[in-house]
């Protein structure tokens, strides 16, 4: 049965009212114009949308997807404005100002599906960053996303699956695919490139020196994105799954490895499920990169600050948008002594542990960054400053940068991973290199040229599939590939007409042949998605990819787009066509 004719989508109150109004008027597409002419001119407005994405030099695949969408929207009678904008401007347009109709972009899906709560729950739609930038509202999914954070095991899994069913039914975004993380590497100086997913924070930390080499050399990498050298603020909302700041400079209390979230800057912890409390001990003798002691007071400050970056100086709270999910779960943080903290968490243990993945911030650096710089968005200086000399407690410390050219980090010898006798040293240490240099290059091909010449050791794991053949022709260079949690998607601003209509969003979703995008645009280096969650264990069987999207199958077959079928979906959503083929309100 087609999803649109199924009982769940066949008759909602909204659609019944729309259908009743149309039936009562008796207007076909032909007599729309007849009646308008009789009453003295057209009062019906053509549906128009602005489509925005990044230019091809930032991500040619996003640009290609967007161009296809524009062509198909115009084919079904929708007027379009197509805008290509640099990544930083797209971030501001979508994640800060909410000034968009439809964008095509990426977001990093978290390992734990609680990230859906702040991304889609209606109570977060007035925030910034990835706090429901879509303006999506749905009471059913709201309730389910609230409930899951107090659950565990199979009960939680079923609640998440119900929430995904509700969300995909409304299509606030169109999840297209998750790409394959691709990096090109040389193995003559370092080994272990395949031990961890390439965009995982532990990817480079799991390396070893190649046989016969000592862990004293510099790891040299290329990157295409200049922002890596420009803005070193870990609170900045990002589109990218690979983030050097929170991977190497700013460390959390816990990281995900060996199948679960485990202690990192924390030495140990225990969770009291009945009291909903986490009691944790820090590693002894922790320091910030500037030599100041890292104590339990910094842990307390971090969660207070993430919950309100104005620290009570504003009329309302100003949470750090990037880590809103973690801070929203914390009720209180109590310092028991310099190394011991008690965190009261409003969640069951399965979700409570995710609180510990937020990066710690030094109070003596961030406490002065509380001024509100934009009341309309609620942004404070903490979220907007460039942080040119970052001070964290990560495995690597900031050494230098040249804007638009390079970023250099050096080994933090005081980190538990780099100190003998710690569990982290036994599991991961010591670090395989004493410094890490990211070199900005104009393109993937430029990075590969440096790699084949032996001037760098690896690219960041964001290579486009169009350069893979170049890598395979180089005997000294290997490809490293792994699944990713980067979700390529189409985002709708449901605050705006006609995008507040779920039927209209579903009709747009049917313009995408996801399987063809994977094969033709990504050369097979991607997996089609039907939900914004990438891990199969959370996805209900009814939404499993089966060669097409079972919720919003493509309006076509055999790779061919069926314009007339697509038009019918827009008419089913309550819209009409003029004689000259324009879709009108």
TrEMBL record:
GO biological process: peptide transport
Residue ranges occupied by any Solute-binding protein family domain in the UniProt entry: 261-581
Domain of life: Archaea
Recorded GO MF terms: peptide transmembrane transporter activity
PANTHER family: PERIPLASMIC BINDING COMPONENT OF ABC TRANSPORTER
Protein name (Swiss-Prot/TrEMBL): ABC transporter substrate-binding protein
Gene source species: Halapricum salinum
